[in-house]
Amino acid sequence: MTDQLQRQDFINDAALVEGMLDGDSASFEMAVALYHPTMVNIAKAIIGEAFAEEIAQDAWISAIRSLTEFAGRSSLRTWLIQITANAAKTRLRREKRQVSLDENWQTNEMEDRFDHSGHWGEPVSQWDLETPEAILANSELSDIISQTFEQLPPQQQAVLTLYDLEGESMSDICNILDISASNARVLLHRARSTIQQKIAQYQDHF
Amino acid sequence: MLKCREIEQMASDYLNKDLSFQQRMAFKMHLFLCHNCRNYIRQLKTTISSVQLMPAKQSVVIDDKVKDLAKQLREHASKQ
To answer: Which of A65, A154, B33, B62 sits CB 3.0–4.6 Å from A44 for a disulfide?
Structure first.
């Protein structure tokens, strides 16, 4: 059975942690539903697909072991991301081999949108649906955005999550994911640009 | 003068305020003269805001996989 809960029904981090400490099953379910996908993705970005689910589950166990130490200095999501990233990096060192990381990120060139002189090949129009609210109110477009987000290569998705959703600084992101600043900037722009192009394709044929 | 291609490549750094003063001025000069790039920057800004708004608009799905992992974790916690 699948339950759907609206995010506005969220309980805050402190209440969620308290519920978990009390052994409340709904709090555990909510925490897993909210944060597990991000944790798996962070692990994928660091160590690759094969170990990601296992790392995320190990990270949960570590997190639960130290739940009483969660002081709320960061959000629960950021705290879990850090635990996951540390677990993935430890495992990566133990494996002592470079596992397949987001192999396509360098070759995954987007379609060239520019002519030989460096100008836009096609005019860039103003979108009919101009505000984020209008865009997300369109269910097809909203689905396109979430599907595109989910299909982003793991490192791109991780940087986008940390920068645009979590508001982490670039230097923290480089530490969490063990990547250089220039890589992080390229990954962020590729992720944003992929989503922008999908929205543009939809709006151009609207 | 920057080309549109360079504007596209620098766009996230511009929006993140990660450009040097000189780069920023050159970027703004191009935007002043190029409506395609002005539209592109507006589109990219709207994209970022839409991504940021997305979690608030989505429902949280608690399926069997979530319930199984949650149950395992709860059992683990109760053994501590």
So the answer is: A154
